[in-house]
Amino acid sequence: MKNLIIGVVLLTCLANCSTDKELIKGSELEKWAISNDTIFYSKKPVAYYDHSEYELNPGHGKRAKPIQELSITQINFEITTDQLIKYVHTIHNKQKVEIVVPRK
After folding, report:
1. Which candidate, 18, 17, 39, places its Cα nearest to that of 83?
2. Torsion region of 47: left, alpha or beta (phi above 0 gives left; psi -120 to 50 gives alpha)
């Protein structure tokens, strides 16, 4: 019985840890597109790639590696910033992402 409980706990942890809940999948992903530097949602422009930066964080220890940060400016607010950042994270999951939200 003890082994069964440990097995169930391990499987639950693996299932929860192996799935990134911040990724967009399936039919929702099909609504997104990129052309040149513009990101579209349902064929409407919502943001554009502004620039990218490389940074090295010395706090990551001796084996720190440079990482790329993408700067994206949101231009349409029919979608939330959270939706936009989830999409960008889905297609650029190795880069750091910054969404710039201009003042209205």
Report:
1. 39
2. beta
pLDDT by position in tens, the chain (length 104) = 544 444 444 444 444 444 456 688 888 889 999 999 999 999 999 999 999 999 887 777 778 888 889 999 999 998 999 999 999 999 988 888 899 998 76
Residue entry with tokens 């607010």: 77
> Cα torsion for 67, 64, 17, 93, to the nearest 10°?
10
pTM for this prediction = 0.71
Q: Whose CA is closest to 93, among 4, 13, 30, 21?
A: 21
Question: Edge-to-edge strand order for the sheet containing 38-41?
Answer: 32-35, 38-41, 44-55, 67-74, 96-100
Give the dihedral sign, CA 53/81/48/25.
positive
